[in-house]
Automatic annotation (TrEMBL):
Residues 1-11 have a biased composition (Low complexity). This is SHSP domain-containing protein. Residues 167-261 form the SHSP domain. It comes from Lithocarpus litseifolius. Residues 1-22 are annotated as: Disordered.
Length: 261
């Protein structure tokens, strides 16, 4: 099988002879996904996990962890000896067709003494804030005991070009999906950081088109993220008004099918 470095990433999911499929992925000029963890991302920081920065004056290390679907009440933080912090979250099922997800990872410091770790989550993006005190050595400040930054490639045809979330321990590994339900099609797309005010959904040329944008998830980031994609095709005369829900960094859509007259 050819590697992603020597071939072009697909611009759509495999066509479904029995129904609609996803397309209009974010592909760069080099023919690869802009963000290998989310094919619909077009700009901004990539990767589901990222050590952001160490502020020069306040001696704080920040780690961004995308946890789409996780509300504040389902986020938790535990500290252990030897400068180790464990951060986890539960994304519950919210409607028919949904699948819950579970996240968890540990982060540690080699060269600084850790004190007063904190975690916050907003729109599916968790920020672990680790204050440090006196430097213990000159070995560096990178996080240790963390999930692998070189996430493993999945093996099916499309996802060979994508990477899975290193901190997700249960639930669907894809950042998007669709399911045929009684009313029509239930569709979900991860957009970590996006709010309902910054997400739009419409119908163009028989396709359901969706897009979203985020603000900076941290004062240490240079820009937010943008997402765009589509799902279809449909006979627009046979679908009803699309119902949308944007919650905790996940866009959910119910595309109803009209009953035959």
């Amino acid at each position: 099988m050819a590697s992603s470095s020597s071939s072009t990433a697909p611009t759509q999911s495999p066509p479904n002879p029995e129904g609609p499929f996803f397309s209009d992925f974010g592909i760069t000029d080099s023919g690869e996904f802009y963000a290998k963890n989310n094919p619909f991302q077009r700009s901004g920081p990539v990767g589901a996990t990222e050590r952001i920065a160490m502020a020069k004056n306040d001696k704080v290390i920040y780690v961004r962890v995308d946890m789409p679907g996780v509300p504040k009440e389902c986020l938790y933080l535990t500290t252990f000896p030897d400068n180790v912090v464990f951060c986890g979250g539960l994304a519950p099922m919210v409607c028919e067709g949904d699948r819950g997800r579970l996240y968890g990872a540990s982060y540690g410091l080699r060269s600084y003494k850790l004190r007063k770790p904190q975690v916050n989550i907003s729109n599916g993006v968790a920020t672990v804030k680790m204050k440090v005190s006196k430097q213990k050595s000159k070995a560096g400040t990178r996080c240790s005991n963390s999930p692998s930054w070189d996430e493993e490639l999945k093996k099916d045809e499309l996802s060979f070009y994508l990477v899975t979330h290193p901190s997700e321990t249960e639930g669907p590994k894809e950042t998007y999906g669709a399911k045929k339900v009684k009313e029509g099609f239930y569709v979900w797309v991860d957009m970590p950081g996006a709010t309902k005010e910054k997400v739009s959904v419409g119908v163009e040329d028989g396709f359901v088109v969706f897009s979203g944008e985020t603000l900076n998830e941290s004062n240490h980031e240079g820009s937010g993220r943008t997402y765009k994609g589509r799902f279809g095709p449909f006979d627009v005369t046979k679908i009803g008004e699309i119902k949308t829900d944007v919650r905790n960094g996940v866009l959910r859509m119910l595309i109803p099918e009209k009953a035959d007259e």
